[in-house]
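Batch job 17 of 40 flagged for manual review because the log was empty.
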Amino acid sequence: MEEHDKSFEHEKAKELSKEEQETSGQAKTEDESAPLDIQQLNDKYLRLYANFENYRKRVNSEKEELIKYGNESLLYELLPAIDNLELALKHASGDSDDSLVQGVKMTLKELHRTLEKFNLTPIEAEGKPFDPAIHHAMMQVEREDMDEKMVAEELRTGYMYGDKVLRPALVAVTIRPKKEVKKGKEPGETGAEDIEIRINKDTEEES
């Protein structure tokens, strides 16, 4: 009976020892994989942080853009009214002493001053080199007193809104005058006028 009990205890001890070894092996495997899991989590965190930073910068940029150009639509709708006032002054230039003309000039000046506070400024055009980024060519004119590709005349005022072109200026651009080439008659060459005169002369002699 005692021998049976000893044998049973020995087998039990072997099983416990085996289980302890397996448990120890699993613990060792988990310990080895732990650094790998931490690295993966750290990489995931860095990616999320980078994505969040990019999102934050994009939102701030869009917000600044909205604040900077928030009045763009309103200012653009005001431009035709400014054009009409300038056109009225242009046609009434001969009556500069008229009180109505003076009132329109003061109104236009005050309007320009107010719009400048919102970063709306007219584009310089006449007498300047043609720049397709801010000028829109409507016609070409021959000018001997100006270089080629210069703005000879401003047909409609353009405007900048901050560093952005709100509306390009409509302009006339200079080109080189075309030289007239007069063709002379070669020696012995008979022109149409000479033939007509000769025919008339022969007809008179026959009669």
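Reviewer: the log was empty due to a logging misconfiguration, but the result itself is present. Strands lie at 120-122, 135-142, 151-156, 159-161, 164-167, 169-175. Unflagging and moving on to job 18.
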